[in-house]
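Memo to structure team: turn this sequence into structure tokens by end of day. - J.P.
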Amino acid sequence: MNEFTFHRPDSVAAAIKALKANADAKWLAGGQSLLPSMKLGLAAPAQLIDLGRVRDLTGISASGGSLRIGAMVSHAAVAASEDVRKNIAALAQLAEGIGDPSVRSRGTIGGSLANNDPAACYPAGVLGLGATIETDRRKIAADDFFRGLYETALAADEMIVAVHFPLAKRAAWVKFKQPASRFSLVGVFVSQGTQGVRVAVTGAKPCVFRVAALEQALAKDFSPKACEGVRIPADGLNRDIHASPEYRAHLVGELAKRAVAQAMQ
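Reply from structure team:
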């Protein structure tokens, strides 16, 4: 790992100023993606800007039919939050199943979304619930946020401040995990609420995506049976040592069916 200068700003404005002042700088959230990349020599920022002391990036609160989670809130804190468990239990379940205790204690929701790993869990929850990502300068709908493999709508110097989740009538998350990494081989988040029915899938393509055919079927009949007649094409799905596109296509339909059954309980 290369040498670097370490900064610890205490405000969003100071963190952005530090980034703009250093051409070769990176923000450090939980460090679950950046630090391993640095150890492997895949990233070598000369400046690290730790966001751990920025209070505006913390906190969980529920009001007005919405749940707000600060960008620097850890996975473990989301999983343990009474506000999250009471209002969107499926989101707490999602956070509880990320990685291992060490990852959950350090990893953050903002860091996960900004990284946009193709097999990460949070993108499915954010897209599946139709959440809004609040940055230091604007609000971005989940449908507009995720652009492609490790790509988002964020500008180079734009910081996620919080995520706002609308409360759903029903919601559920089911994940078929890769046993070693515990990332999603395929993960499906289903919700029914003011935005209608949403079905978001992670792990199956280079980027999280919605399945319109399942959403349309479930809008007519929100039941596991409605998923059975929906064909999931294998075209464009990931192929690797763990699963073929055809197997992932099968998993999308099967996990959607299980998620709907779970949401109805």
